[in-house]
Amino acid sequence: MMLGNTESSQRGILSPKQALKLANMYLQNAFNAKDEDPEIARVLYHDIEALLSQAKKSVKQSEDQTMIQEITVTYHELGKLRASLHYVGSDLAKGTGNLG
Q: How much of the chain, in percent, has pLDDT values that exceed 70?
C-alpha cells in the first residue's frame, strides 16, 4: 500500500482552517520529537510547510486577516523549529529552504 500518495491527496480536501490546525498539531509534535528523534521532526517540518502553503494560497484569495495572522504566527514558530533542528548540510542550512 502506498501511503505517500494517499496522504498528499487527502491533504487537499482540508479547508484552510483545518490545514492550519493540522500544521499546528504537527508543529507541536515536531518540537516534542526534535531531541529524541530529529528525523521525525524533519519529516513533520516538511509536512507543515506543505500544509501552510495550502492554507496561505486559499487565504490570500479571501483576505481573511485573522487567518493570515494565524498563518504568520505558525510560520514564525516553524522558523524556530528549523533553527532548533540544525539542518547541517541540507538546503535549509544553506538558506534555500522555502518557508513561504
A: 74
Residues with Cβ < 8 Å from 51, sequence gap 6 or more? Answer: 11, 14, 19, 20, 22, 23, 26
> How far is 66 from 68, CA to CA, in rounded Å?
5
C-alpha grid cell, residue 86? 540544525
Average pLDDT over the chain reads 81
Q: Comparing 95 with 48, which gets the higher pLDDT?
A: 48
DSSP the chain: --HHHHHHHHHTTS-HHHHHHHHHHHHHHHHHHTTT-HHHHHHHHHHHHHHHHHHHHHHHHHT-HHHHHHHHHHHHHHHHHHHHHT-TTSTTTTT-----
Report residue 14 as a C-alpha cell: 482540508
Identify the pLDDT of residue 9.
55
Radius of gyration of the chain from Cα atoms? Answer: 14
C-alpha cell recorded at residue 80: 524556530
